[in-house]
Amino acid sequence: DSGVTQTPKHLITATGQRVTLRCSPRSGDLSVYWYQQSLDQGLQFLIQYYNGEERAKGNILERFSAQQFPDLHSELNLSSLELGDSALYFCASSVDQQQFFGPGTRLTVL
Amino acid sequence: GENVEQHPSTLSVQEGDSAVIKCTYSDSASNYFPWYKQELGKRPQLIIDIRSNVGEKKDQRIAVTLNKTAKHFSLHITETQPEDSAVYFCAASTSGNTPLVFGKGTRLSVIA
């Protein structure tokens, strides 16, 4: 157990819908990262927050957004969902450079 | 930006043999190189990491080597066991609290 938690574990929804994925970092970690992993693919960095502020953006679509709250948990919002958005979504938190991943949310868009 | 290349994409070894996975990076400013193991449907797990001020690091059956001049680093697993079968990812980053750039992964199969 890495200490990073994510909910829900699984999410099944339809095209055009909007979902919210939640992540709680390890105690004391200020940075939260979101990654997308499609079937048999690598880990694509989406976005990073550090102590409530957006720190870095990767290959995140305009339909996707995120935020980090004062208690440091983070939410990733995915809207106007398409079939191709089906993937595992991981968050990770870090202190310094070591990143620890949560168990992921498997999103299936039908 | 940083680009990380990883080879091979698949690797099969007999139980007890060694496995080596290699990565190259492009940004000479990168100074942190972790390796993650991911079993099917599970989270990536940090198994070992190395910083640019060190050339080699070992932890039991796994070791990582770093050649800063050539900008490549490698994961070595000795005495492989079936439970080592997984996808292994290398990554690189330039400083604290920055995103990791991942290689595309190596699927390791250890045949009993």
Task: Please provide a brief summary of the model.
The complex is a heterodimer of chains A (110) and B (112). By secondary structure, chain A is an all-beta fold.
Question: What's the helix and strand layout?
Answer:
The complex is a heterodimer of chains A (110) and B (112).
Chain A: E1 5-7, E2 10-13, E3 19-24, E4 31-37, E5 44-50, E6 53-57, E7 64-68, E8 74-78, E9 87-95, E10 98-101, E11 105-109
Parallel strand pairs in A: 2-11
Antiparallel strand pairs in A: 1-3, 3-8, 4-5, 4-9, 5-6, 7-8, 9-10, 9-11
Chain B: E1 4-7, E2 10-14, E3 19-25, E4 32-38, E5 45-51, E6 56-59, E7 62-67, E8 72-77, E9 86-92, E10 101-102, E11 106-111
Parallel strand pairs in B: 2-11
Antiparallel strand pairs in B: 1-3, 3-8, 4-5, 4-9, 6-7, 7-8, 9-10, 9-11
Overview of this structure, please?
The complex is a heterodimer of chains A (110) and B (112). In chain A, a hairpin with a 2-residue loop joins strand 9 and strand 10. Chain A is globular and about 35 Å long. Chain A is an all-beta fold and 110 residues long. Chain A is 0% helix and 55% strand. The mean pLDDT of chain A is 94. Chain A has no helices and eleven strands. Chain B is mainly beta and 112 residues long. Chain B is built from no helices and eleven strands. Chain B has strands at 4-7, 10-14, 19-25, 32-38, 45-51, 56-59, 62-67, 72-77, 86-92, 101-102, 106-111. In chain B, the strands form two sheets. In chain B, strands 2, 4, 5, 9, 10 and 11 form a six-stranded mixed β-sheet that branches. Chain B has a five-stranded antiparallel β-sheet with strand order 1-3-8-7-6, with no helix packed on it. Chain B is globular, with a radius of gyration of 13 Å. The A-B interface holds A 2, 30-31, 33, 41-43, 45, 48, 50, 55-56, 58, 88, 90, 94, 96-104, 106 and B 32, 34, 36, 41-46, 49, 51, 89, 93, 95-105.
